[in-house]
Structures are given as structure tokens and as C-alpha cells.
Amino acid sequence: MNSYLLLFLAIICEVIATSSLKLSNGFTHLFFSIITIIGYSASFYVLSLALKTIPVGIAYAIWSGIGIVLISLIAWIFMKQTLDLAALIGMGFIMFGVVIINLFSKVAAH
Questions:
Q1: What DSSP string runs through 33-72?
Q2: What percentage of residues in the chain have a pLDDT greater than 90?
Q3: Apex CA 98: angle with CA 97 and CA 104, to 5°?
Q4: Which of 30, 63, 76, 93 is the 20 to 30 Å CA partner of 101?
Q5: Do 28 and 36 touch, CB atoms closer than 8 A?
Q6: How far is Cα 28 from Cα 22, in angstroms, rounded to an integer?
Q7: Where are the domains of the chain?
Q8: What is the CA radius of gyration of the chain?
Q9: How far apart are the C-alpha atoms of 89 and 67, rounded to whole Å?
Q10: d(Cα 106, Cα 110) in Å, to the nearest integer?
Q11: pTM
């Protein structure tokens, strides 16, 4: 499987786990607590597979950047948490950074 597809799968698992972590209410709701543990475990496992060919700094920049944006969108849409202009601008810069890494970094092309 393509390493970047594995990285994307790791991001999706992490986003599910982080969303469930909020819903677990401090690990007091069993269902969401179990989803959190499974999601983070799957995320780190799949991330470790992606790291066989993607440099760790590049993978982590992409993983964390896209994860931040997705978690923020999920929190905004489903958990009714608001995002102010500064948060939106900051996330825009994060995504811009991820795009720059992927388009112009010789290390990312490795």
C-alpha cells in the first residue's frame, strides 16, 4: 500500500480517536473510551508503517497539520465549538505549510 495512503488512514484513525476522547468525558463513557483506545492504537500502528518510507518530520507535519484542521472542523460542525477568525487564519497557515512541504520539499519527495 502507498505510504501516503497509510498516512491518510493514520490521520483518520487519530481524528476518530480524538473526537471520541472528547465524547468519553474523561473516560467515564465506556463506548467512547474503547473507541479512543482502539483509534489511537490503530493510528500509531498505521503511522509506523508509513514511516518505513516517509521521513518522520514530513509525516508528522502532515499528520498533525491535517489532524488539527479535521478535528477543528468536526468540533465546529458536530460539537458546536466555535472558531474565531484568528483560529481560522492559523489553520489556514497550517494547511499552507503542509501544501508547501508536499509541493516543494525534496525530503517529502523521498
A1: HHHHHHHHHHHHHHHHHHTTTS-HHHHHHHHHHHHHHHHH
A2: 64
A3: 85
A4: 76
A5: no
A6: 11
A7: 3-104
A8: 15
A9: 16
A10: 7
A11: 0.85
Q: Name the residue with cell 507535519.
A: 61
Residue closest to 21 by CA, chosen among 11, 31, 12: 31
Q: How is residue 69 written as a grid cell?
A: 484542521
Query: pLDDT tens across 47-92, in order?
Result: 999 999 999 988 988 998 899 989 998 999 999 999 899 989 998 9
The C-alpha atoms of residue 39 and residue 41 are separated, in whole angstroms, by 5
Distance CA 6, CA 27 (A): 28
- What Cα–Cα distance (Å) separates residue 105 from each residue in 42, 47, 53, 55, 91? 28, 20, 15, 11, 20
Q: Record the cell numbers describing residue 3, joined without a space.
A: 505510504
Q: Which three cell numbers stand for residue 91?
A: 489553520
